[in-house]
Write a structure and sequence with these properties.
Chain lengths: 354, 530, 344
């Protein structure tokens, strides 16, 4: 979980500049000219779409095993493999020949890797979106607006609490919370299920999602809240807002028409980094065994299950399917795209860096 | 594959009578040299506190006690040269070795033993092993409860004679004396401050030369050891981790464990590393346990069906790359009393379905949750494979539930006196040997009165056999009784025995007489470097 | 300015108290019983009770928390009125093993029996700081050069190539780079040790060849961010009037770069460096485990696997404290380096 202070600082500089709606339009035009950033945006959108829709097109169930077809190499990778074959010292032939059925081959238990990756992407999408939407957007905007508008002790309270939350090593605490809270949340959800007489909530992995993104969300609102508050304080002092007030504009109109549009660029920059951060946090949580629990696949679990040097070289040599390489490739590309996208956004929307 | 915290409890207790067997000769090989191996930071080096395998590796080299184990796991004299057992079996008189010294050069006397025993039994020491390992000595219980100042059963006859009185004759008492709780410590050293174990003044074949926490531990040969001193000059433990195989192949370590992903490569005879390959049993059994107090596993037919539905050999072959040995029974190979011809409930999906139909539940099974303890990364693929096989072969969907190890430990325990029941229906767990005797597996895990019988398995016939074995003194007879009980348990479907562990290691050819022992024993003194 | 710093300083202890309370609560209500875990599969309830009593784990939550912060009294209070109780708790002699966080005593580790958490942590921090500084130093130097090069060539084809190249290096996951380099440099060429740490005689690991590979790989992380920062802040400065003035007044290009651009562009880099040092723990989770570095990140991971809550709690507290202090220092540093900024 990235610390948001850097961005908060950026917001401080943003406060100083002159505002205008045309900036937003200008920014988009400027952004469109950045080819790399545009390509990144397309890839990121594809990742999110793939995560949402992909599982419907998955050829196999994520849990269907076939122990007779363990580590079948990827069909798609065949042309690439022979090049790197030198790395495999023994050059033993693969146990199974690739087939079109399994485009990316199968994992140790003979499960279709392609389907599992689609499902794993869904996990990343759900966790990162849920964490960012609830944490940054909902909590952040709400608390920021409260703080800015109400002022006085509410402002003090929110900002001081924010300071405390900011001071925490986010990831460390998220880990602690996921480890300690999960059993309790699990019990609680089971109780609700029994009381309500329905089932399937626990089985769907809901608890894992809840704990993982809940813990992340709790620590990601501070940055956005600070920006929103800063903007409100600044805009309140501006003449046209005072004018709008004078002619009887409501608070919500103030927020949505005057304040949000002017903060949107910073929020977007911030979101792009926290989305990437949330995907990264899922990896670490899974590694420590407190992330999403199997059999629900997640990219993190898939990476850590198969993290081994020898296995890595066997994958390069196409002796086994890319059980580690494929998920790690996807995650790295998404990280890289988020970085490029954020860079492009920054250039386009932050008028001081051109 | 020490996946669980339960590996913390490898105890070293040998029930055997082979006293005085000669120490095996170290073979050829020059003196000096350094052995570099992997290690972990020991949680403690205090013999009285230690109860985990990591610490034991160091403690048994740095300290020593009255008796010890040799490489054949037999009890042999150590600081005690010889001993006599009174006719009633309740009093042991140990004659201490003359000239045996602490690393500092101070001679070891019977008083040092008295101090060490009393210290271990002092409630302030907070030892949680003293009750188990010293509890048979008269007066230890009182001392532990804070009711006595001294341990009345430990008597110093003279400087080199120690008499130990027991509350009752215990044929395993000497075996317990090989466990570090009864090792001798130097009073001066212990009282030098809370971090005395950073510079332990022991009696063992090696001395602590350097301990950089998290980085390395350097043990140095104790030249004035009271028996044949070690051949190695130093043993260097690298504590920082890293990729074992890479370090081995880059000559950074002399011994490396072989993991599941490397096993195929190493077993390939055309690979030069294949010649440096050493395998050993680990005396443990992994199993799926059934709680027979809750439905549907109160019906043996259901248990048998769940047994027949699991294709163990395929799982072990594909998922574990034959790293382990599929288990048929309860007692692991390498253990005295192991029965290679025990008849397991083999994979037979048709019979499994048949049995399930015949059970009192028929097709109407209640929902089943399979609980596994978690404390490290990801679910064991073996568990996922088993659950999938139950699904395909029996048509039953079993839910996997991961529980924190700490919670698991509490919830799985039964206490018939407090009517506390095991909370889980079916669970995966392992059991490793505390001492090489089948009693440790069959009696402790399946006697209906045993506290460690988590599944509440109860069969009067088995109880009868086990009771009979308890009072039997001839090993042959005892082992036969245990084997008979084991077969009944297997037929009843008391467990789904999964596999027995093994360790795979690569050892550089220059290291001579390296032996992968199934238990932790003082063994660096036998090893030499060429 | 001074008022602002004083206000921050006064506020800091309250933040720390809140942080310690949250941390303690989470650790306290963690699953299972540490004593039970310690004793494993064959535990005897009587011994568990005794050990719990000995460690003060049977006391009420509030008492345990206050004891954790200010230290537990040597004698456990019994049969006292409320006022006496408070006085006893606050002023009587401290328990030698539970002196309280304010005296630098974070309690005893659950895993390493009888060892002080503080002893465990501090030697590890030193290792992490060494490795982190070397890696960060290398990363910052490379990143600054790349960023400067990109900015001065703005608009040319290699401007975006440098920036995205820097970002690419940063996005490379350490668990791909590490095995590849280890395979090449250690397994095949036997040039460098693949992992480990050698603190030598003075506790300095930076002179051992073991640091080369991890430092090299870890330096990739900050390169992307630093390149980007350096580029944009250089651009910002280049377009400022005073730089144009300097140029137009005929100052050599070199002098312009060093005196004007360099100094001002360095500012935001301070932030990055400061915050990177504060996040050593999280940054070290994976890399220190892969490389076998006995640093704070690896200790965190090991403690987590052993559910050694006192260590994790202490680390959380220390990181929070250092984060607060580093932030304060950064803010103060800013005002000194750039007089245009006023705080408050």
């Amino acid at each position: 979980m990235a610390r948001s202070t850097g961005v908060a600082r950026l917001a401080e500089t943003a406060e100083e500049r002159t505002v205008g709606k045309s900036l937003w339009v200008l920014g988009w035009e400027r952004f469109r000219r950045k080819k790399l950033a545009m390509i990144s945006l397309v890839i990121i959108l594809a990742f999110y779409l793939g995560g949402i829709a992909g599982p419907f097109f998955a050829p196999f169930s994520y849990s269907a095993q076939n122990l007779d077809l363990s580590y079948q190499p990827a069909w798609l990778a065949q042309p690439l493999c022979t090049v790197i074959n030198v790395l495999d010292a023994s050059r033993r032939p693969p146990q199974h020949q690739p087939s079109v059925d399994h485009l990316l081959g199968t994992d140790r238990l003979g499960r279709d890797l392609f389907s599992r990756i689609l499902w794993g992407m869904r996990t990343s999408v759900i966790v990162s979106l849920a964490a960012v939407l609830t944490g940054s957007i909902f909590l952040g905007v709400l608390l920021g607006a409260l703080s800015g508008f109400v002022g006085r002790w509410v402002d003090t309270l929110i900002m001081r609490v924010g300071e405390i939350f900011l001071a925490f090593p986010g990831l460390l605490l998220v880990i602690l919370i996921s480890a300690t809270l999960r059993p309790r949340v699990q019990q609680w959800v089971e109780g609700v299920q029994q009381a309500g007489g329905f089932s399937g909530l626990v089985e769907s992995g809901f608890v894992d999602y809840l704990v993982v993104f809940g813990a992340m969300a709790a620590f990601s609102w501070v940055g956005v809240a600070r920006i929103i508050r800063g903007q409100i304080l600044m805009l309140r002092a501006l003449e046209y807002v005072q004018a709008a007030r004078a002619i009887g504009a409501t608070t919500s109109r103030l927020i949505f028409v005057h304040i949000l549009p002017n903060t949107l660029n910073i929020i977007i920059i911030m979101l792009s980094s926290s989305l990437g951060g949330a995907i990264g946090s899922e990896l670490v949580l899974s590694w420590l065994g407190v992330g999403i629990q199997p059999p629900t696949p997640s990219l993190g679990v898939m990476i850590w299950e198969n993290q081994s040097q020898t296995l890595l070289f066997e994958q390069f040599a196409c002796r086994v399917s890319p059980v580690f390489l494929a998920p790690i490739f996807i995650v790295s590309v998404v990280f890289f795209c988020f970085a490029l996208f954020g860079d492009g956004l920054n250039d386009a929307l932050n008028p001081r860096a051109r | 594959m020490k996946r669980f915290g339960w590996a913390l409890i490898a105890l070293l207790l040998v029930v055997g009578t082979a006293c005085g067997a000669a120490t095996p000769g170290g073979g050829a090989g020059g003196e000096g040299g350094t052995l570099t191996i992997f290690g972990d930071d020991p949680p403690t080096l205090d013999p009285a506190l230690m109860s985990d395998t990591t610490s034991a590796v160091y403690v048994v080299e740095l300290f020593s006690g009255l008796v010890t184990l040799n490489r054949q796991l037999q009890i042999v004299p150590d600081l005690a040269e010889s001993w006599q057992i009174s006719a009633d079996g309740k009093s042991y008189t140990f004659k201490l070795r003359k000239g045996a010294m602490f690393h500092s050069g101070k001679e070891v006397t019977a008083n040092d033993f008295k101090y060490s025993f009393e210290r271990a039994a002092d409630p302030k020491t907070n030892s949680h092993t003293s009750d188990t390992y010293l509890g048979d000595i008269k007066g230890v219980k009182e001392k532990l409860e804070g009711k006595a100042k001294e341990v009345s059963g430990v008597k110093v006859v003279d400087d080199s004679t120690l008499q130990i009185d027991l509350d009752a004759p215990r044929f395993y008492f000497l075996a317990k004396m090989t466990y570090p709780t009864s090792f001798v410590v130097d009073k001066e050293n212990v009282e030098s401050g809370r971090s005395w174990t950073d510079k332990p003044n022991g009696t063992g074949p090696f001395k602590m030369k350097e301990w950089k926490k998290g980085e390395q531990i350097l043990l140095e040969r104790n030249a004035s050891f009271y028996m044949e001193p070690a051949k190695l000059n130093q043993v260097k433990f690298l504590l920082a981790g890293g990729s074992a195989m890479t370090m081995y192949e880059n000559n950074e370590v002399d011994v490396s464990p072989v993991g599941i992903n490397d096993i195929e490569r190493i077993q390939d005879t055309s690979n030069p590393l294949n010649r440096e390959f050493v395998v050993a049993n680990t005396l443990d059994t992994w199993y799926v346990g059934f709680n027979v107090e809750v439905p549907p596993f109160d019906d043996p037919k259901v248990r048998q069906a769940f047994n027949h539905a699991v294709d163990k050999s395929k799982i072990v072959k594909v998922v574990l790359k034959d790293l382990f040995q599929p288990a048929k029974g309860v007692i692991p190979p390498g253990m005295p009393g192991y029965n290679p011809s025990v008849k397991g409930l083999d994979f037979d999906p048709n019979k499994a379905k048949q049995l399930l139909k015949e059970s009192k539940y028929g097709d109407n099974l209640p929902p089943i949750t399979f609980t596994i303890p978690s404390s490290s990364t990801t679910v064991d693929p073996v568990t996922e494979a088993i659950v999938e096989q139950w699904k395909t072969n029996l048509g039953i969907t079993v839910k996997i539930q991961q529980v924190e190890w700490a919670t698991f430990l509490v919830d799985i325990k039964r206490d018939p006196l407090k009517s506390k029941k095991n909370k889980y229906q079916v669970y995966e767990l392992g059991w490793s040997a505390d001492y090489p005797d089948p009693q440790d597996f069959v009696d402790i895990l399946f006697h209906s009165k045993s506290l460690d019988n988590n599944g509440a398995y109860s069969n009067p016939k088995v109880d009868e056999l086990l009771d009979k074995a308890r009072s039997e003194s001839a090993s042959e007879q005892r082992f036969r009784l245990y084997q008979e009980a084991e077969q009944i348990i297997v037929n009843d479907g008391g467990w789904v025995p999964l596999y027995h562990g093994k360790t795979y290691r690569l050892v550089k050819p220059k290291i001579k007489d390296y032996l992968s022992a199934p238990m932790i024993i003082p063994q660096f003194k036998y090893i030499s470097v060429q | 300015m001074l008022a602002y710093i004083i206000r921050r300083l006064v506020w800091t202890p309250f933040v720390l108290i809140a942080v310690s309370f949250i941390t303690f609560t989470v650790g306290h209500y963690g699953p299972g019983d540490p004593v039970q875990v310690l004793m494993g599969q064959k535990n005897d309830p009587e011994i568990v009770d005794r050990v719990r009593r000995e460690r003060g784990l049977d006391r009420p939550f509030w008492e345990q928390y206050v004891g954790y912060v200010i230290g537990a009294p040597k004698e456990q209070p019994a049969g006292m009125s409320a006022v006496e109780y408070v006085f006893h708790f606050a002023f009587s002699e401290r328990h030698p093993d539970r002196q309280g966080v304010i005296r630098g005593d974070f309690g005893e580790s659950y895993k390493f029996l009888g060892q002080k958490v503080s002893d465990l942590i501090f030697s590890r921090v030193w290792v992490s700081v060494q490795l982190g500084s070397v890696a960060l130093g290398v990363g910052v130097i490379i990143g600054m050069m790349l960023g400067l090069a990109a900015a001065l060539n703005q608009g040319r084809w290699f401007d975006p190539v440098i920036v995205s190249g820097g970002l690419f290096l940063s996005s490379l996951p350490v668990f791909i780079v590490q095995p590849l380099l280890a395979f090449l440099l250690s397994r095949q060429l036997h040039l460098l040790p693949s992992s480990g740490w050698d603190s030598g005689v003075l506790g300095l690991g930076i002179f051992s060849p073991k640091i080369i590979m991890p430092a090299l790989i870890l330096s990739l992380g900050p390169i992307g961010g630093i390149t980007r920062l350096m580029r944009s802040s250089t651009l910002e400065v280049v377009n400022q009037d005073y730089v144009r003035t300097a140029r137009s007044k005929g100052l050599g290009e070199r002098a312009v770069r060093i005196n004007h651009i360099g100094r001002n562009a360095v500012l935001p880099i301070f932030t990055v460096v400061g915050l990177s040092l504060a996040s050593l723990v999280e940054g070290g989770f994976i890399s220190e485990t892969l490389f076998g570095i006995p640093g704070i990140g690896r200790l965190a991971v090991e403690s987590f696997f052993a559910r050694d809550y006192p260590v994790i709690m202490a680390m959380t507290l220390l990181v929070a404290a250092s984060y607060i202090i580093v932030n304060l220092l950064i803010d103060i540093g800013y005002t000194f380096l750039d007089p245009r900024i006023t705080l408050g």
